[in-house]
Amino acid sequence: MLISRRAIVAASAGLAGLAILPIGLRAQEATTAPVKTADEIIAEFTGGAEVSEGDGVTLTAPEIAENGNTVPISVEAPGASAILVLATENPTPGVATFNFGPLAASQAAATRIRLLKTQDLVAVAKMADGSFVRTAANVKVTIGGCGG
Amino acid sequence: MASRREFLQAGLATSAILAGLGMTNWSRAMAQQALTQDQLLQFDDFGNLTLIHVTDAHAHLRPVWFREPATNIGVGEAAGRVPHVVGESFQKMFGIAPGSPEAYALTYPDFESLARSYGRMGGFDRVATVVKAIRAARPDSILLDGGDTWHGSYTSLKTMGEDMVRVQNLLGIEAMSSHWEFTFGTTRVQELIEMCQFPFLGANIYDVEWDEPAFEPYKIIQKGDLAVGVIGQAFPYLPIANPKWMFPEYSFGIREERMQEVVDELRSQNVDLVVCLSHNGFDVDHKMAGRVRGIDVILSGHTHDAIPEPVLVGETIIIASGSHGKFVSRVDLDVQGGRMAGFRHKLIPVFSDVIQPDPEMAALIDDIRAPFTADLEAVIGQTDHLLYRRGNFNGTWDDVICRAILEERDAEIALSPGVRWGASVLPGDITREDIHSVTSMTYGQCYRSEMTGETLKTVMEDVADNIFNPDPYYQQGGDMVRVGGLAYSIDPMAAMGNRITDLRLIADDTPIDPARSYVVAGWASINEGTEGPQIWDVVEDHIRKSGGVRQDAPVSNITVKGL
């Protein structure tokens, strides 16, 4: 038996609903200031500290976007205090910084983002010890058709 | 792919994997010149469980001619390894004698003359005979269908897939995966699933709105004292390669981490074996097998490859069982202590003149076809040459379709989808059923519109990258879009955006001008609201008007570079 969230929500309509996520989310700010590059945003986030590649942060994204206007992504970095997410080739590369308080049960977040074109997504996690780890995933935005 | 030697070494290392690979037996049978049903089905029973795999029949109920590809370019790590080996190289790799039945079944050389010697292949009444024979020998068998079963013929279009569900139920399918099934639209898919006496599995099919699993991911099938976990994996790029407006509720994707999660879940329930019934396509399955831990067997579909030996990746075997009902794979397994300890495999070729039709299935197929007999058998014209589609670039059938589009829709350039389905036609009559075999679909409108040279190039680059991206996870498993009225060069190994060069209009031999607008006609648009006559009517009109299909001036001119 497959139990879906949709079914549960439908079944429990009338009951109180949503859990409160222990995350602070700072969405990218609308601004008239010059757009910062991905590197600049990373430098700001790390304060110029060294960023190591690899284990510790996971970025999950589709290889090919089904709809570039709303691409589901998720990030996870056990023990992190913050995770920065960038879409490197978007006109404004900043996507989000997820900050996790000491009471956060897990250091994971999921959202949907808009991608202008095929590009690398980058996630940088600030770990509890102050170190930084980085990972990337390439997401292709395609015209489609002709499969089979 | 693993060589035969690596195979045996691996077998010795793990335990009782046998030297008696199916192909060897088959070759021996063939060498005796006399094909008999007993020889085709001959198999020394092995182990304690049998998997039977059928896939990608594309609703071809009756036996077909089907010419295997002459061009199947592999990029990156896949270069030079199956299934990217064709013709004589394929024959050498597997020790197949030119002109033998197996050469006819698996490769393209001399196809036309061998087709006349060895006859059509497939047909669900013959497949039923094979399945029944295996089950009689091996009560503990599991019959699995990799999908692309409901779509692809006149009768499946007219019955909206119901004919195939009836056939699957009678055959005793025990689980299926999917791809073109979804092009009947969500409502119809749900109706058909209700009719299925077996589960429709899809671990990677998610609800778009809630981003959570929308279908049963797996089914644990009990055979004897073994619990077998069968995971379904739908074609990952359905909403990109096919019209997503027909199934807007669902999201797909490879979702490798999801596959690992489902495998782990099955392992935690102490299943004895984990089988992935996949519609990923062979190269994607090959990569996935190396990255997801704990799958014993991948039954691979989508890319229509018939591979006579299992391909070993780590401790996972990948079985590729061809298309259009030409083959049935039998995999005998020795399952011990929660894992596969050994296997024996045979890709059984369904020679329709050799294998007796099963009367029960033959009766059902007759019943399905009866209301449509006159339409199916209507002779539309004749061809003076072999018509086929399969291959990376235009086949002769595609040339006919593109010429029909150019002339009937008065276009400068024709585009026809690079799908891998559609049977071949030998010189002689072309029936309406033959035309539907290469055109049938729920979005067959033949549009006519304008496109700039720049857009045309962008579209072709995009499609080329979907086939020739060196990372299999970015491939969609089709072939290159077919073109009419157009010449071009392609370098499959080049980077995205740089593969297509020398685009020229054949009519006046001028370079395609990026700024000029061209009249382009085509079919199988993924956009909602596409208007135009159905492509099968366009092709039929063209064949009737021209008095048949002749091999005249090339409708396309494609140069492949950089190999």
UniProtKB/TrEMBL annotation, chain A:
Q: What is the designated name of this protein? A: Thiosulfate oxidation carrier protein SoxY
Q: Which UniProt keywords apply?
A: Signal
What is the source species?
Paracoccus subflavus
Q: Which residues form the Ig-like SoxY domain?
A: 43-146
Q: Signal peptide location in the record?
A: 1-27
What Gene3D superfamilies does the record tag this protein with? SoxY domain
InterPro entries named among the record's database cross-references: SoxY, SoxY_sf, Sulphur_oxidation_SoxY
Automatic annotation (TrEMBL), chain B:
Tell me if Hydrolase is a UniProt keyword of this record: yes
GO CC list: outer membrane-bounded periplasmic space
Say which domain of life the source belongs to.
Bacteria
Is Nucleotide-binding set as a keyword in this record?
yes
Q: Which Pfam families match?
A: 5_nucleotid_C
What are the record keywords, sorted?
A: Hydrolase, Nucleotide-binding
Molecular-function annotations in GO: hydrolase activity; nucleotide binding
InterPro entries listed in its UniProt record: 5'-Nucleotdase_C, 5'-Nucleotdase_C_sf, 5_nucleotidase/apyrase, Metallo-depent_PP-like, SoxB_N, TAT_signal, Thiosulf_SoxB
The record's Gene Ontology biological-process terms are:
nucleotide catabolic process
Q: Which CDD domains match?
A: MPP_SoxB_N
Give the family this protein belongs to, as stated in its UniProt record: Belongs to the 5'-nucleotidase family.
Q: Read off the NCBIfam families from this record.
A: thiosulf_SoxB
Query: What is this protein called in UniProt?
Result: Thiosulfohydrolase SoxB
Q: What's the gene?
A: soxB
